[in-house]
Structures are given as structure tokens and as C-alpha cells.
Amino acid sequence: VSRPELILALPEDDQPLYLRVARAIEDAIRGGRLRPGDAMPGSRSLADRLGVHRNTVKNAYAELIAQDWLRTQPSSSTFVSPTLPVMKVRPSSGARDCGFAMPALALPPADNWAHLGGAQLNFWGMDPQLMPVKALARAYRGALRGREVPPLDYHPGRGHPRLIRALGAMLSEARGLPPDVDLLVTRGSQMGLSLTIRALLRPGDVVAVEEPGYAYSWPAFALAGVRLVPIAVDGHGMIVDSLARVLTRTPVRAVLVTPHMQYPTGVTLSAARRLALLTLATRHRFAIIEDDFVNEVRYDGPPVLPLASRDPTGVTIYLGSLSKTFAPSLRIGYVAGPSPFIERLTRIRALVDVCGDSVLELAVAGLIEDGELQRHVRRLTRVYRERRARLAGELRARLGSAVSFEEPAGGTALWIEVDPAIDVEAWAAAALIEGVGILTGRLFFLDGRPRPYLWLGFAGLAEDQLGAGVAGMARALQQLR
Ligand SMILES: Cc1ncc(COP(=O)(O)O)c(C=O)c1O
């Protein structure tokens, strides 16, 4: 591995030059930039770099050898003393704290889910084995070497025109959106949501969200000074009557919903509630932010068309993502909505990100155009259906009446109600000791207080791992009892 060139800043003082060179090297060792055993540059090359005489460097080395910072070998190479303790990487000079005023900001804790990181079996995430890496590599090659000039320059706008066309065709054919729908390509739906917040909301505005709901989105609202009002969810999705009651007291600027597969419960918003929600939005002129993050993965029943496909009054802002059907790290999402809104979003996006990753966008357009993405989703859905059945079977067999759940018609997780006699948080902590990571109900509620639910994702674990994971959960439960 080639190491970066050593850069030394000589202290500005009246000491002899060779001592200043020696102190700069000592600082580099203390700061961890030079580590025990590292070879030092030859005296000539370092002297050239510093613009000093070679003897100055030789004298500095001699000084540091005398103090045992450096050693030398018979072959005359010089290296950092291998017996020094490894220093922490921390510059000996230079500030760690802000020297400028930084106003207070209520950021959410960064480590809300961090305690789960260490498990061998995690009931969340994706399975890298299932990702179509070869197809993506081919598509990238195509994007860079194809007949079109590779899109390497700045390209402000809504995204690569071919991806806009391919997504537009997909949304109108498979999801009933208008064929000429206005679209902006974003880096994942989280960016679509953040841009929407910026474009639409002002401090003090009220937004209604599902509870339990997509907690990862909530801090983005909080950061903008927006107040969230929770609306409860039952077996038919968000209880729209509760929203109607809130509207009699408080003007609501927007409602965030996951109508197709409610996150995290997996239920579908009933037809009556869909109509009621669209009617309320039209009457009260609020926006419906429809998060349809996992539309394609459906096992049972006919596909349910998005609210955005039945929106004559232009009240929906439709967020989509390839995170669940391709890979979360690709960061491809999109926003569809009324033209003036997409225009505004596009202009804000240009200020945040200038333009998207156009090579990736062209590659993904190719994958959609030649049907590769659609074939991949069909494969994924087959595998996930088996995993859903396996997880459900294991839970029934090993945990019995401790848990109850419905198998969701789509998506990648089970939402599980836990016997209220069981301390869910203690169970999750015991499971972690068994090497199994599970998400508990409190992570999906605004107040973060314990709730008798578990969210178990089955997309990231192979069938035998799902079995092993549930076995670990059962052992953990046994210990609690
Ligand atoms: C409810 C919900 N919306 C959206 C997303 C996708 O986010 P992104 O497209 O930013 O990766 C997820 C991913 O977990 C999700 O659970």
C-alpha cells in the first residue's frame, strides 16, 4: 500500500532550524501520523520537500535518535522507534472544538439503533447475496461505454432523461399514474422527503404522521421546526376519522402516509379510507405525502394502486425508491407530483446537490428498459415469499402464544404483537446476548416509550438463519422466564 507523503509543518519560533524539524516530526509521531516502525523518508528527499539543507534533516534525525523517537539501522535507514506506545490519532496542535459560534440545534440522537449493531443475526437489512451485482456492473459499463456520450458534466435538471422516461413508463403502466406525470429523480426517498419539507413547510406548521410509523422520517420534520401530530393505525391503515377530528381543531399542512403497505404494520389502507383521505386533503388543501417505498414486493392479492393514481385535484406528492428492490446504497428515488411543485423541488435540489449521479441514473435506466430490474423484483419476491413463510412458521413453532401476527400481503417484515406479560425491551436485550438483533415497538412511536411489539425483517436473512434467529429469541425468552 503506498503511504501518503509525510507533510510537516515547521513550528514558527527562534529555535535552530534542525530542532524545529525535529519537533515537527515528534508532533507527527504524537499525532499518530507516523506510527511505531514506520520508515522515515531519506534525508535528501525530506530536505528537498522542506526546502532546507540535507544536514539540517540529518541533525534533526540525530536529535530524535538520541531521544529514542527514531532508530536507525546499520543499512542507515531511519524509522520510528518500534517500542513507542501507539499514539491516539489526535493532532497535538489544532482545535477539536468549534472556534465559531454554533447555535443550538435539536438533532435527534445519532445512535438510536446503534446498540443493535453487534449481533450476528439481524432481523433487518438486505441480503447482499440477492443483489444483481453483475447486471449492475454490465449496466455501468454500458452507461460509460455505450453509444451515448457518458454523462459526466454538470446537468442540472430532474435527472437523466432516459431514467425519467423509464420511471415514468413504469409508474404509468404498473401503478396507474398519468403517463405525463412530472418526476424528479432524487438520491433515495429520504432526499425526496427532505426537499418536500423544505419546499412546503415552515416552522410551526403541523404535519400528521402515522403511529406506529416511519420514525426515520420524523427528525427531518423536527429539524425544520415542524410539529408532528400522531394518527393511530389499525388493521385498515391510518384511522382517517382521527385525522378528520384533528382537522377540526388544527390546520394541518401535510400528512405522511404509507397507504400501500403501512410501515411498520404492513397493512393496506382500505378503499373507504383512501377516498376519505383524498376528500379531506382536497377540502382542507393539505398535501398527502405518499411514501410508497416498497410497492413492487407484493405476495397476495392484486396490486393496490397508489393514491397518486386517483388524484384529480393534485393533492398527492408521491415518493418512490429503489432501495428495497435494488439496494439501499444505490440512492435512487423519485418524487412525482403537480408540475409547479416538482419545478420548485427541482430548483431546491440544485442548491443542495447540483445534480444527481448521472452515470448511475443512466445505468439504472438501462436496467429498467431491458426488463432486468423487473425480472430481479420477481426473483426477489419469490425468495421473500419463502422467507416470510419460514419466519412465520418458526415463530409459531418456537414462540407460540408469546407472539401474534398476520402475514403481510407484501413488504419485507412482520409486525408482531407480544404477550403484554413479557418485557419486550428485556427480551431484545437478552436476544442480543444470544447474537440476535431485533427491533422493538418503541422505535416506531413518537414518544419512544416501550410498546409490546416487535418488527422482524426477513429480507436480510436466509431461511436457515431465520430459523437460527428465532431459536435465539426463544432461548432469550426462556431466560427471562
Ligand atoms: C417507510 C420507508 N420509507 C422509505 C424508505 C426508503 O428510504 P430511502 O429511499 O431513502 O432509502 C424506507 C426504508 O427503509 C422505509 O422503511
Bound molecules: pyridoxal-5'-phosphate
Strand order of the largest sheet: 4-11-10-9-8-5-6-7
- Radius of gyration, CA atoms, in whole angstroms: 29 Å
Main beta-sheet annotation: 8 strands, mixed
Label the overall shape: globular
Strand content: 5-15%
Count every helix, treating DSSP H or I runs of 4 or more residues as helices: 14
Measured between the Cα atoms of the first and last residue, the distance is: 53 Å
Mean pLDDT across every amino acid position: 92
Order of helices and strands: HHHEEEHHEHEHEEHEHEEEHHHEEHEEEH
Helix content: 25-40%
What is the structural class? alpha/beta
Task: Write a structural description.
The protein has 481 residues and is of the alpha/beta class. It is built from 14 helices and 16 strands. The strands form four sheets. It has an eight-stranded mixed beta sheet with strand order 4-11-10-9-8-5-6-7, with helices on both faces. Strands 12-13-16-15 form a four-stranded antiparallel beta sheet, covered by helices on one side. The longest helix is centred in the C-terminal third of the chain and has 28 residues, at 372-399. The protein is globular, with a radius of gyration of 29 Å. The mean pLDDT is 92. It binds pyridoxal-5'-phosphate. Pyridoxal-5'-phosphate binds at residues 188-190, 214, 258, 263, 291, 293, 321, 323, 328, 333.
